[in-house]
Write a structure and sequence with these properties.
47% helix, single chain, Spore Coat Polysaccharide Biosynthesis Protein SpsA, Chain A, alpha/beta, 2 domains, 7-stranded mixed sheet
Length: 339
């Protein structure tokens, strides 16, 4: 009998996107799945929209607002699937996503976490021509910290047995898989991947196709970047408490790569001054970033300075060319991985 998949979707104020997100799950070519929608205290019409679906595979759970980690935990506790997949309420899947990941996991019992690249889309769901892509195999804890192979929460499909292996029970007797401490949001995903990497023997391995459509919202702002940075630092401090030996020497490179990641995000938000500041912090924190990934680091530094010094119209021309070239190289890389 085919393995069933439980799809867990946290729902919080995503009325503009949740219908399409659910539709993208119901359109899967792999038919053996259930969908658990977890209402995380949503205050808009999101749940009203969810209730329009008349499909026996869909179950709606409710909780007070506690954040996405707690919502995922709630969903996992009710999961009956052999595999658990996660989808954020504003993202989408290609129709063959579950089929590809289930096949990957079925054929490779040593793989506990199956992931994939993501294609970036805008608020309207249109492709912006770029991908979130990294190494597909041989994933180490330092890769999880510095190269984000699991680029977002709508990517992974995980064996439920792996999640159970890292579960813990709080004082109230509730089982958790993701750490619900809101200090860690939005870095609770990486905290979970690190616990899987350090506490189990399973492998992380990718399917070299962009099966997740990750929405880059124009509503993002510098305040969210600060929140991300603070949560990242809190996650690393927690890591030092529960894995002190394994994590020795990880703090500086992990912070530097995060500074660089946020600098790239600042560039996309057209904040050149912030991007330059973050790149300077990255290099000052861990100079080896220039040797380990010189191309990506120097490209980000150049983009930050060009954004700051060039007239907006001229910069946009450079950016358009860079997006086309980068997208073409990313597609070539994925095709090479497939072949």
């Amino acid at each position: 009998m085919a393995n069933q998949v439980t799809v867990v979707i946290p729902v919080y104020n995503v009325e503009a996107y949740i219908y399409q997100a659910i539709e993208s799950v119901l359109a899967q070519t792999y038919p053996y799945f259930e969908v658990i929608l977890v209402n995380d205290g949503s205050k808009d019409r999101s749940i009203e929209i969810c209730q329009k679906f008349d499909d026996p595979r869909i179950k709606i759970l409710h909780q007070e607002n506690q954040g996405p980690a707690a919502a995922r935990n709630h969903g996992i506790r009710h999961a009956v699937g052999e595999y658990v997949a996660f989808l954020d309420g504003d993202d989408l899947w290609t129709p063959d996503k579950l089929a590809k990941h289930v096949d990957h996991l079925d054929r490779n019992p040593e793989v506990g976490v199956s992931f994939c690249p993501s294609r970036f889309i805008d608020d309207q769901g249109d492709s912006i021509g770029l991908y979130q892509i990294t190494k597909m195999a041989g994933i180490t804890p330092m890769d999880l910290l510095c190269r984000t192979p699991i680029g977002n929460g709508s990517v992974p499909v995980i064996r439920k047995s792996v999640l159970e292996a890292i579960s813990f029970v709080n004082e109230a007797g509730e089982t958790h898989y993701f750490n619900p401490d809101r200090r860690l949001h939005p870095s609770e995903d990486v905290d979970c991947w690190l616990r899987i990497a350090l506490k189990t023997q399973c492998k992380f391995e990718g399917v070299a196709e962009a099966l997740t459509l990750y929405r880059v919202s124009s509503a993002s702002c510098s305040a969210q970047l600060t929140k991300k940075l603070n949560s990242w630092e809190a996650m690393l401090k927690d890591l030092e408490t529960w894995a002190p030996e394994e994590s020795k020497g990880w703090y500086a490179p992990a912070m530097a790569y995060q500074f660089r990641h946020l600098a790239r995000r600042s560039v996309s938000l057209r904040d050149g001054a912030e991007a330059v500041k973050l790149m300077h912090q990255a290099i000052a924190t861990y100079r080896r970033i220039l040797l380990e990934e010189p191309s990506r680091t120097l490209q980000t530094l150049a983009a930050a300075y060009l954004l700051q010094i060039l007239p907006r119209q001229l910069y946009q021309k450079f950016e358009a060319i860079a997006v086309q070239l980068t997208g073409a190289m990313q597609r070539y890389r994925m095709n090479s991985e497939l072949s």
